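Sorry, any thoughts here?
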Amino acid sequence: MRGSAVRYLLLAGLSAIGAMSCCVIPLLLVVLGFSGAWLGMFTALHPYDPLFIAVTLAFFAAAGRQLYRKPQACAVGKACALPAVQHRQRLIFWISLAIVLPLLAAPYVAFYGFGQ
C-alpha cells in the first residue's frame, strides 16, 4: 500500500479503538470472561466519542483520497504500479471500513434502538 494511505488507515484504526473504548471493548471483555469494577474505567472516555469518531472518519477520508483521487507517482516495474496491488489496497480499505463503521455506530444504534 502507499505509505501515506497505510498511515491513514492505521491512524483511523487507532482512533476507532478510542471511540469504541466506552461500549464495545467492555462488552468484548465481558464476553471473553473478564469482569471486575475496573471495566467501568472505560466510560471515562465516553465524552470524547464524537471527537474520536470525527478523527476516524477524517483518516478514512484521507486514505480514500490517497487510494482513489490522488494520482500515483510510481515508477514502471515497481509494485505500486501493478493493478493487482492497487486492487488489493482498495479491498483492504473497504474491508476495514466495513468493520469499523458498524462498531462506531453500535453504541448509538443500541441507545436509540432500545429507547433509552
Q: What stands out?
A: The first helix runs from residue 3 to 20. The chain has a mean pLDDT of 78.
